[in-house]
Design a protein that fits this description.
Length: 179
């Protein structure tokens, strides 16, 4: 069974928890976002967009089929434990986990073009783990009628351990949030 949860955005001024990007301190559990009092439906620097989902065996198998990455650490629990050193068994492909970032952006800004992504894989994500992904706008520039937005990108497991982090740049047709 696949669990998917989509959350909108959160203004940093309304956060009940501090957000520590690029530090060893894990982010707190996702909370329901609160719109910015100034612009409740416009993206601004500091806004956080979140999305959670649980990756299951069938997700990993489909990703392996599409990409051709049949590394047994993703598909064979015993191999993952004995040879890969992953004590909990099969691990989700890192790029499958990282695919949550463009999904968050595209679902909130239809027509967005994802232009770059830098990633660091910090810890494995095991099949069945719930992953919370978040992107935070850290820079917004307008060029003609488009917006170039730089985001920090982070994923956490259900234990709130950071598993992926990095930065992404996307070209947005507008700053209006669609969700």
């Amino acid at each position: 069974m696949q669990t998917t949860r989509l959350m909108r955005f959160m203004s940093p001024s309304k956060s009940r928890f501090p957000i520590h990007f690029f530090s060893s301190t894990p982010s707190p559990p996702p909370i329901e976002p609160t719109p910015s009092p100034n612009s409740p439906h416009l993206l601004s620097v500091g806004h956080v967009l979140r999305f959670s989902r649980r990756f299951m065996d069938q997700d990993v198998a489909r990703f392996a089929e599409v990409t051709g990455d049949y590394n047994p650490v993703h598909l064979d629990s015993e191999f993952a434990k004995s040879v890969g050193g992953f004590d909990r068994g099969k691990v989700v492909h890192g790029m499958l986990v990282a695919s949550l970032f463009p999904s968050i952006i595209a679902s909130n800004f239809p027509g967005a073009v994802y232009v770059s992504q830098d990633l660091k894989f910090k810890l494995p994500v095991y099949v069945g783990d719930e992953v919370a992904a978040e992107v935070q706008a850290i820079n917004i520039r307008q060029i003609k009628k488009k917006f170039i937005v730089k985001f920090t990108t982070k994923c956490f497991t259900n234990e709130f351990h950071p598993v992926v982090d990095g930065e992404a740049v996307a070209v947005l047709p507008s700053l209006n949030l669609m969700k």
